[in-house]
Amino acid sequence: MYTKPCVVPVHGFVRYIYRSGGGVRKTAGEWDPTVSLSLNHPTLVLLERCESRNHFKQILAQMMRNHLTAQTFPMSRLLYFSAISHPQNTDIAVLLFNHFTPSPNLYIYNTMVSALSASYTPAPQSFALYSSMLKSRIFPDKHTLLYLIRASECLAEGMQIHCHAIVTGLFGHGYLQNSLLKMYLENGQMDLAHQLFEEMPNPDAVSFNIMIVEYAKKGHSVEALDFFSEMVGSGLKPDEYTMTGVLMCCGRVGDSPFGRSVHAWLQRRMLISTWNLVLGNALLDMYVKCKELKLAGRVFDMFLERDIVSWNTIIAGHAKVGELALAHTIFNEMPCKDLVSWNSLIAGYAQMGDYMMVRKLFTCMITDKVWPDAVTLVHLVSAASEVGALDQGRQIHGWLVRMQIKVDAFLSSALVHMYCKCGSIKTALLVFRLVTEKDVTLWTTMVTGMAFHGHGHKALEIFSEMQECLAPNHVTFVALLTACVHSGLVDEGLKVFNSMKQKHGIEPQVEHYGCLVDLLARSGRLIEAKDIINKMPMEPSRSIWGALLNACRAHGNIELAETAWRALQKLEPQEEGAYLLLSNMYAAYGRWLYADNLRETMEDKGLKKTAGFSSVVVDGVTHKFVATDIRHPRWMELHSILLGLKSEMGLSSDALSGFMRHSPLD
At 544, which CATH number? Predict the structure, then answer.
């Protein structure tokens, strides 16, 4: 057992001598890191080996008993252990700092700021401690400011740290400059980050990497590639982090040739076995986003090690381009599947309208104890919407309610769209009203639903409600103008179109002009519609000329119809729709020669009319029918039912002749 220490001055530095049965031992006194870093006291040695909270408390009690906690160096070790090495003891570190550290030095302040910057409420505590440190006339070093940057929660705090770095003369440290760069970029301040980067006298590879990767993440891929060119031009050697950012840019802009050249550069300079998974996955993701699935498959096969991201990336790639059989095969080969794996495959089948497979995968997912998220459920609802399966959509909605899953604006938009598309507009409006936090997508979806059901005035009312809490976007105006078109609200539509730029600052695009032309043309104001087309700031699209041609047929303006037809021939000469419209128009007005000539031209070009069809969903399976089609496997039953309906309705003998012309029973 050690007795109370006695003080012995040695060359101006106070040392403590502890007497024990075995002789005399020296330990460090007031700690100055430039003079002594001694850890030769047995209790401090035990502290360095400590692994548990209980053990730490025993050592702390022993140090208090031996008055070690009154000295700076032992206290610094206690604080470092409890706040940094074992952060689960941060609460003890705070108590020790507040009540047993009367004269903390810079190292101790840095230790505490670092610990608090990683806590649940980093900013208030860290900045309060920093303020206390300045009041004690202890000036920060680069580490202090780095910890404060990590603790900052808003741009204003980060800018204050930037100012302190300049005032204290610490701004010249490269690591601090890079941390400030990252802080500005993460807060979306691209201009400030670029200004800081330009003012750096000698940006290093880390500086360029931060700019390249963060610009790529923000979607500024072209600018990120410019930084890469500048980096190479300045003689700095790119590393794997640089190339990860460059590959990210190539994938975002779809630049497959440049991506392949980056791949070649990597193969020349780095063995594949030395690549880390992040770089390998970035290369794989680049090929997937560029839709180079064969090359992506080769890269995937070359991987010596694959993680869940590698598997999910290749599955999502094949699923997005419709290669569902291959995506499903890879999915089955996965050693471990997560939520993203299931969502990728479900999204692929939902995109193809295969509701039965989507529902099957969803059931398997639940069986495998993988709980769905909002993305899963949106795909499920969208698949039901695609096939018009209202009963299936209602089942999914009921499941959401029973499982007490929170329906946010994203999922609500899918539900509203499903109910609108399946014809249940009242239920769609009910779902819409139940959502407490509506985003612009949900408002737009509801307006679109009203538009396609011909409820133009109701769509305008909803738009008026929306403006009270949220600003519309260009898609909202497309939906609103469509509502005016379908309801014949010409004056209201003109007001909406004119308000886009004047009131909301949104420049009308080609789709908005298309709605305006359709609105005027349907109401018989064909000359005004043609004037709009002539004055458009961009080239009119196929849909605009098609809308004008349709309206000319309805209002009997053959001359303007021919103008629209000629414009359509320049845009899409292989489309048969314009030929058929104008040919039927000629026939309706007795111009048989013109009609026959158009039909002959169609035959010469090999153009044929695409057969229209009707469809019905039964038990999640879509059945399609074209006129006089007897290829359906249950044709005999259908024919029998039609005969029964004919008898019940008392139709004449030729009423169903068009449908039953090729019946095997006739």
Answer: 1.25.40
